[in-house]
Amino acid sequence: MRIAPSIFIAACCLLSLSSCFTGIESTPRITSKDVERVVPASNAEVEIADKLSPSPITQWSQGRRFLVADAKLSLLFEREPALAPGDILVFDSLADEVSFTGDSVSVLSFHKYGSDSTTEALRYKMGMKAAEVPDNTTLPLSVDLDMVDNARHVLLGKKYYIVSPIRVDSLLNITSRGRKLVAATICNVMPGNADYPLRVDISDDLGNLSSVAMTVGTARSATRNFDRLFEINDPRLRYPAISDAVWDNIVNSRVAPGMTTIECHLALGSPRDIRKWHNGGSYFEGWACDNGMYIVFVDGILSEIH
To answer: Alpha carbon of 208 to those of 35, 125, 232, 248, 268: distances in Å?
Structure first.
């Protein structure tokens, strides 16, 4: 069948119009496809993080110590002993026993530091055999003090480059945003809380003292392990084209007109939302950031800060 020239031309025009970009695109949150991760962990950082992981429960030695972080820990034990934050529990044994239903369950036995382990045993039953307990299992609502001692031994006095700007006080409450991507010496490692078992005290390249909260191990909640907080090599060397003035903004989590999307990503991290559009002559990008700031780029260069 022969198509009339007028119909063919109209169809082509319609196809052309439908393929033009005339609206606004919105993504709910930036992903790795939009902006590459700022500080990818190298094998060296991951190796250090692995050294900080606590020993598997099947390798615990008698006498291992745990700091009570929450009084609710008492609910896990038989007879619900009176426990308070700051108390120390001492590990005695891990053994199997037969429950009243005939199943084999594992029992962790502890005693409070300073008490008699034979007369004041604290028993915590888990619904599986000792051989089936996952390696990353630990005593809930507590901090493994032997793990803290090991982390202190591995990290104390070492110089790394701090990646995270988030700083905490002695109770791990967020206090401020510190300088990042700068050299930092580990001054001390102290017990944290059940969520962030390590408080790492640092001194940056200007002598500013602060602390960061750190997780360890392979659990899903371990989102701030060593390889997420520190780098071994100077990250500044990866960006030789960035001027010293712009790098100073990045280190202090600031942005200024004229900075590129990559430089702003280094300074502020991943935005909550990105909107992209163009007016036929320029390409626009709007970022909604976690700190409440909204910034607009024109052709990849920061133009507006709200």
So the answer is: 31, 46, 19, 16, 21
Q: Which of 246, 221, 231, 227 is nearest to 302 (CA)?
A: 246
The secondary structure element, H or E, covering residue 154 is helix 145-155
Query: Which pair of tokens denotes residue 186?
Result: 């580990």
Measure the CA dihedral 24/30/33/39, to 10°.
150
The Cα-based distances of 35 to 32, 85, 114, 164 in angstroms read 5, 43, 54, 18
Dist. CA 180–CA 178, nearest whole Å? 6
Output DSSP code: residue 260.
Answer: B
Backbone angles phi, psi at 299, to 5 degrees: 55, 40
Q: Residue 62 in contact with residue 93, Cβ under 8 Å?
A: yes
Query: Contact at 8 Å (CB) between 155 and 189?
Result: yes
Give the pLDDT confidence of 73-120 residue by residue, as tens digits.
999 998 889 999 999 999 999 998 877 677 788 899 999 998 776 667
Instruction: Kindly report the pTM of this predicted structure.
Output: 0.81
Count of Cβ atoms closer than 10 Å to residue 109 Cβ: 17
Backbone angles phi, psi at 133, to 5 degrees: -70, 125
Closest CA to 168 of 132, 139, 126, 196: 196
Tokens of 217: 């191990």
What pLDDT is attached to residue 24? Answer: 44
Sign of the CA dihedral running 220, 222, 224, 225: negative
What is the distance between the alpha carbons of residues 201 and 190, in angstroms, rounded to a whole number?
8
**DSSP type of residue 87:** -
